[in-house]
Amino acid sequence: MSRKKAAGELPKPALDQPHRAGDTERMAGGRVTYLAPLPLPTGYPKVDFLKATGELNDTWLDYGTGWPTVFGWQLIFGVVFGVFLLVAFIFPLLAAAMTYSEAYPFTEELSIYLDITMPFAILGGAAGLLISLSAVFHAHQKRKKSMPVRFNRQRREVCFVPEGPRGHEAPVFVPWESLMAWVVEARGVTGYGVTQQYGLGLGYAHPQTEKWLTLEFMSPAVPLAIGSWEAIRAYMEYEVDSLRDIQDPEGLRGPDDPPYEGLHTLRNARKDINRRYRNGEVGWLYTLCWYLFDIIECWNLPGYLAEWETRRLKKAGPKRLPPEMQAWSQPLPREQWAQPSPALKRLSAEVNRLHKQHPNRPIEQLFAEVYRKEGLTA
């Protein structure tokens, strides 16, 4: 089995069984809901929240090798320096405020506590930053070698490049309407308590080797996982045509900005918070806290580092693709474009009709009802 990004300890669906959109499976500690085949519309926002889409054009979309995000670097610096400030200053201030007296003035107490906590804060912060940067470097090197799963909407096919013991194997081209997609909800117990996990998975059984090709991503919630799938489905059905459509729902990316995150992302975010403050959408306290967090996250440094990572990945990108994949990715004359099957058109129209009538009904129930009306089985 080839896996681009493991979904931790999430339960895996029964890949040896036939499925269709709307099927559900309950298993120990979790549930799997299938979104394809056939890839029916879900009605969810078409947002690539996972930022797993790397490139997109009129012919193909690359999924699984998205560009580095500013938020990833902000999270590293925010956590490291936030904990440093907490240990180095907040804890001593609180401790001194609770223990000072006439015999032990506040400033003397604070000095004592600072002498105790400061070395721990410095060593802990340095260790945390070093560990985080090592993890980023490891992920960066792994990302340089990984292959995207490419969706070609003109051919209505999906290209997987399996990983074998000797590296990447020959590409496998999968019919779009035969691709399996699912979301996973899983609950587990660790030494720290009960954890809830969610993920999005894509898969296909190799017709010759009968091995499964899979791609899995963790997600913060089921709606976000379904939204990421909906972004792919909408692209393949010509409902979206740019990264801006699926990765910039708040409109923070300027018309001249590159299709990846960087320094411009931070500048646009600051312009947006200032606009919201002037319009009375947020108050001064919210704006002040927003800027304080921005300072703790090292201001513009995350933007510079995201751009630096992206430039390095771009240098290694196009040269890695197999020749068969490059030839398959070439645009076709419009008269040669593949068309959706009559069944997909008919079922999709019915799902859209039912979704308008019952917007709050679970999507798996809508799918099941459509199949039942059609008299179809998996």
Structure characterization notes:
Residues 1-23 are annotated as: Disordered. Keywords: Membrane, Transmembrane, Transmembrane helix. The protein is α+β, with helices and mostly antiparallel strands and 378 residues long. The protein has one domain (2-374). It has 10 helices and 13 strands. It has a 6-stranded mixed beta sheet with strand order 1-13-12-11-3-2, covered by helices on one side. The protein has a 5-stranded antiparallel beta sheet with strand order 4-5-6-7-10, covered by helices on one side. A hairpin with a 2-residue loop joins strand 11 and strand 12 (193-205). Helix 1 runs antiparallel to helix 2 (106-145), helix 1 (70-99) runs antiparallel to helix 7 and helix 5 (263-278) packs antiparallel against helix 7 (301-316). The longest helix has 40 residues, at 106-145. The protein starts with a strand and ends with a helix.
In short:
The chain is of the alpha+beta class.
| Radius of gyration from the alpha-carbon trace, in angstroms | 25 Å
Can you count the beta strands?
A: 13
SSE class: alpha+beta
Largest sheet: 6 strands, mixed
Spatially, the strands of the biggest sheet line up as 1-13-12-11-3-2
**Low-pLDDT windows of residues:** 1-8
User: What is the average per-residue confidence, as pLDDT, rounded to a whole number?
Assistant: 85
Name the helix and strand elements from N-terminus to C-terminus, one letter apiece: EEEEEHHEEEEEEEEHHHHHHHH
Terminal-residue CA separation = 23 Å
Q: How many domains is the backbone divided into?
A: 1
Shape: elongated
Q: Please bin the fraction of helical residues.
A: 40-55%
Transmembrane segments: 75-100, 112-137
Keywords: Membrane, Transmembrane, Transmembrane helix
Region (Disordered): 1-23
